[in-house]
Amino acid sequence: MECLFKGIDVSAHQGAFNWEKAKLDGVQFAILRAGYGSSSAQKDLQFERNYSECKRLGIPAGAYWFSYAETVKDAHCEAAAFIEVIKGKRFEFPLYYDLEEEVRSGQANEKAEAFLSALESHGYFAGIYTNLDWSRRVYSRDILKRYTVWTAQWGSKCTYTGKYGIWQKSSTNGTFPNLPKSLDINYAYIDFPAIIKEKGFNGYLEHSENAPDESEQEEKPDDSPGIRPGCTVRIKSGAKAYNGAILSAFVFGINWIAESVNGDRAVINKSPENPALAIKTPINTRDLILLE
Predict the structure, then answer these.
(1) In the chain, how many domains are there?
(2) 106 and 227 assigned to the same domain
(3) Which residues contact 95 (CB under 8 A, 6 or more apart)?
């Protein structure tokens, strides 16, 4: 695959990072740690500064939340904390769930789904951070197809066989000469800024609750084919999620409730026949069949 952007990921571990040097060195994107754990009080100490510097200098950015979730309920709490921290901000790269500790690897798929579906329900382009070992042993193929993948494999070649958007290729900087040596280097293979802006994710959707200056946004015209909140719908066979991710096979052939509709974007949630089924997934309205 062709590398489209070369970038970095940073957190408070880098201290007051020199973004001026990053810009001059040709850093083309950055993934920022927004925080960790189950409370917005655990926001990364440098996140606000890192975000504002990226905006000031025109460096496209995404963000990630480091997870300590031991249960699915914990993952829901962490997602709520992440959403609170990033509310009102715009991101040109995805927002990632980062669970790394082996002791917390139990229910990894369920926790990731809970966290990432919550992000999607708020209009964010959601992704999952993993490494080669976890992609083979911990995470299922379905979850790695469902969300865009940021995969870590330090070396000269990425051997991850699934589709991925970003490769974290090294924890030692040999790419940007004026930046610290201890710095994660990432290559991006998808034009995330174009996709996110075109589809209106991550605060770029007009009249979005996450978009800055909401009062000045005009409401997006509703061009959905009769689909309204509360309607019962089915997903057309072979359809994908609004962000282009592959849907799990089980979602087809089941009735769902449209929770919200904005233009061509509908968030479907619970099944009226089985309320225990809840997926909180944005779908293009053209890929839905209206039942009532």
Answers:
(1) 2
(2) no
(3) 62, 63, 64, 65, 82, 86, 119, 124, 125, 126, 127, 202
Q: pTM of the prediction?
A: 0.74
**Domain co-membership, 260 together with 181:** no
DSSP label of 164: -
Please say whether the dihedral angle defined by the alpha carbons of residues 180, 183, 189 and 191, taken in this order, is positive or negative: negative
Considering the domain boundaries, does residue 213 fall inside one?
A: no
Strands, E assignment, 101-218: 126-131, 148-152, 166-172, 182-188
The H helix count followed by the E strand count for the chain is: 7, 13
Residue partners of 79: CB distance under 8 A and separation at least 6: 65, 114, 115, 116, 118, 119
- CA dist 43 to 36, 129, 155, 242, Å? 7, 19, 31, 29
> What would the pLDDT profile of 238-257 be if each residue is shown by its tens digit?
888 887 777 777 778 788 89
- The string of pLDDT tens digits covering residues 89-142 is 999 999 999 998 888 888 999 999 999 999 998 889 999 999 999 999 999 999
The answer on 184 and 70 residing in a single domain is yes
Q: State the virtual CA torsion across 124, 125, 126, 128 in degrees, nearest 10.
A: -150
Residue 264 CA to residue 133 CA, distance in Å, equals 38
Domain range enclosing 24: 5-199
The residue out of 199, 234, 257 marking a domain boundary is 199
